[in-house]
Amino acid sequence: MKRISKIIACLAIVALAATSALAAEGGNPKKGKYLYKKNCKVCHVAGAAGGALTPLSKTQRQWDRFFEKDGHKAAPEAIKSFSPQDLKDIQQFLYDHAADSDQPETCG
Amino acid sequence: MRKLFALLLVAALAVPATALAAPTVEDLQKKIQELSAELEDISDRVDRNGMHAATDRISWYGDMRVKADTLHYKDVTWNPGILVDFDDFGAKAMSGAFGDPADPTSPLGKMLIQNPDLATAFGMGLLSGVGPFAFPGGQKSDINNDILYTTRLRLGMKAKVASNVNFSGRLSMYKNWGDSTGSKVFDSWNSFTMDGTDGGNTTGDWLRVERAYFDWKEIGGSDAYLSIGRRPSTYGPPTQFRENEMRGGTPTGHLVNFNFDGITVGYHLSELTGIEGQTIRFCYGQGFESEWGNGELFNDNSVNTKDTHLGGLNFDALNDGTNFLQFTLFRAMDVNDGFKGVIAFPNQFAALFAPTLYQDLQKFPNFNFVTRVQPSTVIGDINLAGVGFTREEMNGIKWFASVSATQTDSNGKAGMFGGMLSDAVFQAELNADGSEIIMTPARATSSDKEEGYGVYVGLQIPAPAGKLGLEYNYGSEFWTPFTQAQDDMIGSKLATRGQVGEAYYIIDINPNMFIKVGGLYYDYEYTGSGSPVGTPHKIEDVQNGTAFSMLPAVDKAWDGYASLTVQF
């Protein structure tokens, strides 16, 4: 029994470790979508200053890199008003709907 | 590539320190380290992307689920019997068509000897009109399958054919542990392995094509699209919540969870209406092929089927990621009294209908013969309609409500198991050599239209480490949806004529891996859930012997389960 407990404990630690290793964790994608639509789409539609941009424009890894390294270099002032949690929410939304994320399986 | 990076590094070093705004050596070294890391990262990704682009034309993904169920059936009643046209029987018997009743070697004499109760009633002139002819062998019991393990492997694939043409497919294997036969003893419609349900029915360790289709989008620069092939017609909304995955199919899962081959022509209306995600589709499919592969060239009148064609409209009125509203209208024309499939023949049927065969089978009690079955008769049409709404709240709460209706339109014809939501009336005939009286289905007990309805509601709330879900559904007496491919072990819960409650807890280990524990409780009110064939009889009537059911009738059942799913 002790051995089984140890195995279960190890599995739990591995599961936790695996979870913490994943990017874009902890954001609220629903809030992120709301914030993105309200704030980002002003500039990120076809013909606007920022050009067309949707979650499908990048892969999950590219979105993570954008938030972790780029920080919206092209126009840093555009995201100044966001709190760290706001940014996390937006990152989560974009990550969850990225080009390589799970997509609805329909015929169109 | 490495040479290029080295040159870039040298170039970076050559940039004047003032330009880098990092005047100290330490800062410079730090910058170099960051650049090196960045370049290594880029190099790694470029290499992998280059390899992928050069060698892969299909992107693969998938999921694997291992599941343990404990299944418990209460008051399973098998009370076999058929309805017989005794007026026809009496007239033929009196005319001598079945031989002399006093002669024990005549067909009628042999039948009366085998059925003494029938002989008594016949002698007293009590047999008239259409009445039940009960078979011996009725029984009632509880059945427990304490543990049943299954593995479901689904391999999804996608390929970009052109900028506006995609291919999608999914291969699936679904098996119970220790079984690779792919055919089960036919004891319910749920056990019947057939085209429409292969993806949700344990069918051995074979990969089957659950779906494979092309999408041709933005045709001629418009928002119209065309999709052809084996449809994404399983796991549609709102069933994705209990599956803990994204929407898994196009039509509502409350009415359709069934594999179909066909065509969808759709149009994304959002640009016209400004309503996010609005899409309208016309779907056409074929659910049964009557001529090809059925021995039609023998020109045998014993099988008289037609192709079953399906058509309908599916309208996503709103799909903005928070709210989803969908309407469905669907019609199945020329529905037959079954599908092509493979079954292991229950020996109990042989005991009732094929005594000569059964005599041999008794020598091999653990043998069932596996046979291909096919329908014999067109029994009518089915109309389906439904409206479903789901909402995913900002705080993580998800809920849905769906109301659907079905209407069956019987043509009054029947095969061996009955007509459209009606039983078969059998007439007695002599077999080919005139030595035995056999019963053949002559007509259905009814040619009425029957309406049924189903209600399906559910709620999923955030819980520590995951989600907690509660679902309830009810189906009325004549409720006849196409959800038989739903892979619930006891049977599609949404096809139940009665009520089903489900509670589950999903533990999200990471975004691609979760554990689900839960339970389903079925309370059947009528027989025949999931089948358009045969009159739905009250379960209590089957139990007390006033109604008959050729297949075992289950009163109540529950299924406790635990599963681990990995998506990759």
Overview of the structural elements:
Chain B: Pfam families: DUF3373. The complex is a heterodimer of chains A (108) and B (568). The longest helix of chain A is centred in the N-terminal third of the chain and has 20 residues, at 2-21. By secondary structure, chain A is mainly α. Chain A has four helices and no strands. Chain A starts with a helix and ends in a 12-residue tail after the last helix. Among the domains of chain B are: 59-80 and 136-340 and 375-393 and 401-411, no CATH class; 84-131, no CATH class. Chain B contains eleven helices and 24 strands. Chain B is of the alpha+beta class. Chain B has helices at 2-14, 17-20, 25-55, 86-94, 107-114, 116-123, 240-243, 270-273, 347-353, 355-361, 539-543, and strands at 59-79, 81-85, 130-134, 139-162, 165-176, 193-194, 208-216, 224-230, 261-268, 279-288, 308-319, 323-336, 341-344, 370-373, 378-392, 398-410, 424-430, 437-444, 449-463, 466-475, 498-510, 513-524, 549-553, 556-567. Chain B is elongated. In chain B, the strands form three sheets. Chain B has a 16-stranded antiparallel barrel with strand order 1-4-5-7-8-9-10-11-12-15-16-19-20-21-22-24. A four-stranded mixed β-sheet of chain B has the order 3-2-17-18. Chain B has a three-stranded antiparallel β-sheet with strand order 6-13-14, with no helix packed on it.
How many H/I helices of chain B?
A: 11
For the sheet with most strands of chain A, the description reads: none
Classify the beta-strand content of chain B into a percent band.
Answer: 35-45%
Number of DSSP-assigned strands of chain B:
24
Strand content of chain A: under 5%
Number of domains of chain A: 1
Explain the layout of strands and helices:
The complex is a heterodimer of chains A (108) and B (568).
Chain A: H1 2-21, H2 29-40, H3 60-70, H4 84-96
Chain B: H1 2-14, H2 17-20, H3 25-55, E1 59-79, E2 81-85, H4 86-94, H5 107-114, H6 116-123, E3 130-134, E4 139-162, E5 165-176, E6 193-194, E7 208-216, E8 224-230, H7 240-243, E9 261-268, H8 270-273, E10 279-288, E11 308-319, E12 323-336, E13 341-344, H9 347-353, H10 355-361, E14 370-373, E15 378-392, E16 398-410, E17 424-430, E18 437-444, E19 449-463, E20 466-475, E21 498-510, E22 513-524, H11 539-543, E23 549-553, E24 556-567
Parallel strand pairs in B: 2-17
Antiparallel strand pairs in B: 1-4, 1-23, 1-24, 2-3, 4-5, 5-7, 6-13, 7-8, 8-9, 9-10, 10-11, 11-12, 12-15, 13-14, 15-16, 16-19, 17-18, 19-20, 20-21, 21-22, 22-24
Helix pairs in contact in B: 1-3, 5-6, 9-10
Domain Cytochrome c (chain A): 27-98
Pfam families (chain A): Cytochrome_CBB3
GO molecular function (chain A): electron transfer activity; heme binding; metal ion binding
